[in-house]
């Protein structure tokens, strides 16, 4: 029973991570890659079917397969993620400038997202 509960919680955590990854593709400051990798880890320990689905996914699969092979991110991917986050954070902060505290929150979230991406080991 405990094993079944643990697997169920890992599946739920994986699904939540995927939802956050999709949100990260849209929202400034929320990174996509770490959430996709977290989902892959949760699925690898709980659901071979969901893990296989994620590996075969058209857009997310290459990222997960690359991570599982090397446990690093290419420098190009880090720069792309940081650039996209910077653009979205800048646009959002500019749009929210009449509310400086909210603009500051967006900038802080963007910096946190960039920090998370750059903490992942780099493959050159």
Please explain how this structure is put together.
With 124 residues, the chain is mainly α. 80% of the residues lie in helices and 3% in strands. It contains 6 helices and 2 strands; from the N terminus they run ααααβααβ. It has helices at residues 2-26, 33-46, 48-56, 61-70, 75-95, 100-119, and strands spanning 73-74, 122-123. Helix 5 runs antiparallel to helix 6 (100-119). The longest helix is centred in the N-terminal third of the chain and has 25 residues, at 2-26. It starts with a helix and ends with a strand. The mean pLDDT is 91.
Strand and helix layout:
Blueprint: H1 2-26, H2 33-46, H3 48-56, H4 61-70, E1 73-74, H5 75-95, H6 100-119, E2 122-123
Parallel strand pairs: 1-2
Task: List key phrases describing it.
two-stranded parallel ribbon; 124 residues; mainly alpha; globular; 6 helices
Radius of gyration: 16 Å
Overall pLDDT: 91
- Portion of residues in beta strands equals under 5%
With strands numbered from the N-terminus, the spatial order across the biggest sheet is: 1-2
Say how many strands there are: 2
Portion of residues within helices: over 70%
The chain-level structural class is: mainly alpha
* Major beta-sheet overview: 2 strands, parallel
Shape: globular
* Number of domains as seen in the coordinates: 1
Order of helices and strands: HHHHEHHE
How far from one another are the termini? 45 Å
How many H/I helices? 6
Low-pLDDT stretches are none
